[in-house]
Structure formats: structure tokens, C-alpha cells
Amino acid sequence: MTTNYFRYLPLQNTATIWGAAISAAGYTRVSPHASYPPSNHPTNRSFSWEGGRKLDALQIVLIETGKGVFETERSGLQLIESDTAFVLFPGVRHRYKPDSEVGWTESWIEVQGPLVERLCRQHDFMSIGKSVVCAENLIGLEESLNEVHRLLRRDPVDCHAELSALAIRILAIWTDQGRSKTNPDPSARGVARAEAWLAEHVAEQIDMAELARKLGMSYSHFRRVFKIHTGVAPWQYLLHLRLAKARQLFVNDRITLADAAERLGFNSAFHLSSAFKNHYGKSPLHWKRDLHRTFSASIVAPKEELLVSA
User: I need a surface site. Which of 8, 61, 71, 72 has the fewest CB within 10 A?
Assistant: First the structure.
């Protein structure tokens, strides 16, 4: 993403056909000391820190970089750091803002439809403990959000079904996080333990076969069930964790590529740079330059698509 945007869409019949539809989305890099939230949002979506806001829809917000705070009337005040996502439940008053000294980059969607209503009637989905989640536990969320933004920046007129499919995928990613903690399936519990162990030892040299043995599984079985429950192979999962940590280092520390590679278990700066570019579409150097470049927001919000309250 190179420019800020947000767009609000009228609900389509795809919300009924598919069960969910994206009614709004946006991507915003908030510079330090910038006013927040950005102006020009519809009246029924704008808010202030002092007054907070209640929505009649569900929103999922990913903070890619920076830090700030998030608060709901149910969960209280929570600190938000980079690579953290939070959900805004319908009918629950909330407020959030970036740290004025740091700013942040937010990527978000709003979803409505019968599927959302059914999910929100489930106590487990609406639990306070699931309102803020580390993005490391939401494999595929950032990529799915980026695909939503790509479609909306291009032209949403002919892609409502595709947007609904992405909405369902993002809801599935959100609901799947933490499920293994309560799932009685032994393989699911084993995968959850493996995920926690990999997150704790992300920078170490990992012997996946040895990890499988610690979990009481053969390596072939471990590899198969791990992919079933996470969607990726163990080594791909570990790479995702390392690259997420690399991005945090590039944001928060003055660190060389070689130091980051050594700290995160890559064989060399070249291997880190290559993996980073394959995953994020640009080299660490260009990613850092884009992150810190001062730019003016370009708001794209056609009036005919805004959902303005009566």
C-alpha cells in the first residue's frame, strides 16, 4: 500500500447469498502527531476519543506498524503494538488511537450479513479474551486484507462475490485463532503446543523432527496435522514468525540487516532479504524507506458509495 484510502459500499444481495459482505474497508498510515481519526468518514462511522463509538457492523483492524491504545466498555484499556489485530463488535462501545509520538499503520474491513449476526450470538466468538490478538496467530489475515484493498482500489463494482468470499475467509481466520486451546482433538492440542513453542524459540535453529518427537508424533504425522490446522507447513509457519519479528525490528530498532538475520536465525543477510522480499513484495530497505517516508494522505471515498446515516 502506498497511499491512504477508505471506501464505504452499499450492502449488496451477496450479503444474503453468501452470508457476509464487506461494507467498508481502509488502509491508513498515521504519521506522528497527526490528528486522529482521519476526517471525511460518514457521520455514523466517525468518532472521537472522548466520546467513543458504537457500530451496527463488525470491524477487524490490523495494526501493521507503530503502537497505540484500544479500549472497549467490556475489556478496558489495552496497549496495542505492531502486528496486532483487534475486533470491534456490533453494539459495543469502543475507542482507539495511535501513540502521538509514533503513529501507526492500520488496515481494516467492516463486515455485515447473516453470518456475522450468527457469529455474534455465540459467546465464544464475542469473548473479551479474543478482542485483541497477536497477528502471528492469524495466519493469512494480512494477505487477505491486502487482497480486499487491491480489489477496492481497482473497482468494486464487479467483484462483490469475491469480496464476500474474502470476508468469510477473514472471519474464519479470526474464529480459528485460539480454537485449538479448547478443541479436544489431541492433534489440535499438539499443534497448539507446537505453535507456542515455535513462537518462543523463533530465533533458534529448529529441528522439526525432534519437536515432533517431543509432542509424541512421527514427523510425517506432525507435518500433516500441522498443515491441516494452520494452513501452512511447519517451516513456512516458522518463516512467517521470523519475518514478522524482522519487521518489528526494522520498525523499532536501528539495526543492520546482518544483525537482524543473526538475531532471527537466518543463515545470512541475503537469505533474510530474499525471504522478506518474497513475502512482502519488496526488500527490507525499500520497505523501511516506504514506512518512514513522509507523505500526504490520498483519501478515496466516492460520495455515492458512502453509508451516511439519515
Answer: 71
